[in-house]
Amino acid sequence: MNALVLNGLVAAPIVMAALALLVGRRGRAGVGVAAFGGVVVLAWSVWAVVVSTTALDGSHVDVAWVEAIGIRWHLGLDGISAPLVLMSTVVFACALIALVRNAPAGGGTTALAVLLLVIEAGVLGSFLALDLVLFFAFFEVALIPMWFVIDRWGDAHGPRGEALRRRAATRFLVFTVLGSALMLVGFVLVRADAGTFDIVAIAASYQPSGATALAAAVLVALGLAVKTPLWPLHIWLPDAHSKAPTVGSVVLAAVLLKLGTYGFLRFWLPIVDPSWEWLQPVVAGLAVVGIVYAALACLAQTDLKRLIAYSSVGHMGFVVLAATTFTLGGVQAAVYASVAHGIITGLLFFLVGAVKDRYGTGDLGRLRALYGQVPRLGGLVAFAAMASLGLPGLAGFWGEMLAIRAAVFPAGSLPRETFVLLAVIAAFGVILASAYFLAMIRSAFQSGETGAAPPEPVARGDVTAWEWLTWSPLVAATLVFGVAPGLLLTPVAEATAAFLGGLR
Prior knowledge:
With 504 residues, this protein is mainly α. The protein is globular and about 65 Å long. A two-stranded antiparallel sheet has the order 1-2. It has helices spanning 2-24, 29-51, 82-101, 109-128, 132-153, 161-194, 199-205, 210-227, 237-243, 246-268, 279-299, 304-323, 328-359, 375-388, 395-408, 416-444, 465-483, 486-499; strands at 60-66, 71-76.
């Protein structure tokens, strides 16, 4: 049963992608098949979570893959990965359903939907992988199709639009592939030191020490920092988001960034000794610099998509800060913040895409007083912005609060004074986040400048029934996890205790 559930969860998107491609030769029916496939994969992920256990004890698939060098087809699902799997399948289902009624410019919607399903297979494989090389392989499967998504369907408006779109896609691919290469070299060093690629065995018995272990930890951290992205390795992100089509931005922000943060939890923590004097504080310090830098950058943005892209750098900084504390509470905060960011930022990119569809621009200098024309859309933007800045009662609050708390009480071997200072600076970043989101709402949706008139819409009016259908799961999840955080925190705690028993 475990083999059927876990292998099927990885295979189902590929099967549905092949079926959609086959049907799509006869017209747009392929998009409908792909959307149905997204719902099937979502249902399969729910099944997988229901039949799995909180910990990995026996509930996984482990067979030889490349036996000569010790690489195994090792898949498992626990309380750390299950929330990210569910969040990912919900986001992909929403993105594929959106394509049914909202095709991107340039046509080829079936091909775009097929690529999204291939990306989903890579993402789910990454979250299920328990072998270092298998994680790397799925990591690459998730990355490469995104280049085609940005390059083929990205925004080509403005001077040199097509050239800038190609540059954004290429920069995304070059940075992330180079990061993956560094990560792979680090994994090979871990294999040389620990004698295995199996992360479960490594977490249970590996005692990192010496130059090889330190080099491996640094290389893996660098590779994951590119994908997260961690400041200053974030420079590929704003262009990729601003040029990607709406569904591409949704998937990139909500799901693909989580491969980096998940890698820190599953594949970096077990290969690092928390008593090392400088590595963890340096990584935590870069995360906090990213929080403040991203907030200041957001205050300077004039484009909605770039503003939300920079805000993602700050949110991922909270995740990495929590992970570096080497505590059970830190892992809880990191998983919770990752899921909350995926839900909320995915919703924000859907909403910003809807604004651009209606007004032909995301320029804050041109958008004014939109509440008067699209009050429901404006209300949803305000709701998502409040959730993203951490309003209590919504999902974004708990991730940031728990990350700051984890930094105040790090593992005993870490310098507490340093982490407390970082926690204070991160809290200041929350205040800055409030400033830029409130400024965005004031500028684009309220009255803005005195006497400024709203722009004339170029497309349909307020939120449609199909958009409500597409966005409702994300709105509901933002509310549910905001008032019932224990739904995530309890299984994460149990899985962390089983996987990384030394954390307290």
